[in-house]
Amino acid sequence: MKKTVSLVLAGAMVAASLAGCGGGAAAPATTAAPAAPAAGETTAAAAAAETTAASSVTPELNLIIASNQTSLENPYSFGMDKFKEVVEEKSGGKIAVTVHKGTLGENESELIEKLEMGAASMVVASPGFMTSIGVPEVDIFSLNYLFDSFDHWEKCLDGDFGNKMKEIVKEKTGNNFRIMDYWTSSVRDYYGKKAITKPEDLKGLTIRTQSSQVQQDFWKACGAIPTSVAWGELYQALQQGVVDSAENDYTSFMLKEHHKTPNGHYICETHHDYTTRLLLMNGNYYDSLTDEQKGWIDEAVVACTEEERQVVYKMFKESKEKVIADGAEVTNFEDMDIDAFKALALPIQDKFAADNNMTAELEMIRAAK
Description:
Blueprint: H1 5-21, H2 45-55, E1 61-67, H3 75-90, E2 95-101, H4 108-117, E3 122-125, H5 150-157, H6 160-172, E4 178-183, E5 187-192, E6 206-208, H7 213-221, E7 225-227, H8 234-239, E8 245-249, H9 250-255, E9 266-274, E10 277-281, H10 283-288, H11 291-325, E11 329-331, H12 338-355, H13 359-367
Parallel strand pairs: 1-2, 1-3, 6-7, 6-8, 9-11
Antiparallel strand pairs: 3-10, 4-10, 5-8, 5-9
């Protein structure tokens, strides 16, 4: 997320506050046909035309779903396409969906603003932005070594912990944000200009990290220097030596070819962050829908979440094979001193939980391992 996110979000929250005086965020148009697609969109234009001609069904809802990822191979793309497919099928054409793949903005803060203003119906976003709007509890998702496998992550997010976080977000945001389900962008690893196996190997290295404070605290504890670089500018920063290293999942940096830069050549499987991404709607808008419309949307959410996760898991292996084939050098998880990294992460977890009254939630996660 760009370092200007707080400014953008501040503007978005003012807009949301004004909208709230009139009864909540503006809802997407429910009768007008979707706007002409921009490059990179997947829309119902051609398919809906055929469906309407055959069945004479006029959509009663036109929904817009968006992510900040431009690649059609990104797991988000498959998940959003599945939502469109299922909700249009289940509703018999009464709901039409336009999918935006980076075309509403590559900055997640832009998508959040669009959701607040009613210019998007559903978006995929990292949880971190909520820390700046009064929901510090969501930074629990940013704690490194919180989860130790995809199975552990699913067990927690699809269980009591995930439900508790949905309740916290709904309450703290006045239902302006409703977590429809939990997606992932896989597990994140270090990549940089030199190989590492233990925390002290990072001493003095600049590393592009997420903006979360707990993330930055972890990398500082390793001896690294956290640095903010916009995702869209990171390839050039690695290529030109502006930053020494970064951290992300195989698929994300493979699609951006970061591993082909001098400062992205060495990939070391720290597996420090099994990521959580939120599929969000405006809860007040969702509550305004009929039970039938909610049912169609809920079915599609279940289907698209399963699709997105399965694509993530499949692409983890394929993306790793691709970067190795491209010449990158990988240090496998088994060859890393993971215990040394975890030893730095656990005190940060404990402090965060104590400071945010989330000790029970942290223990819930640890007990599920």
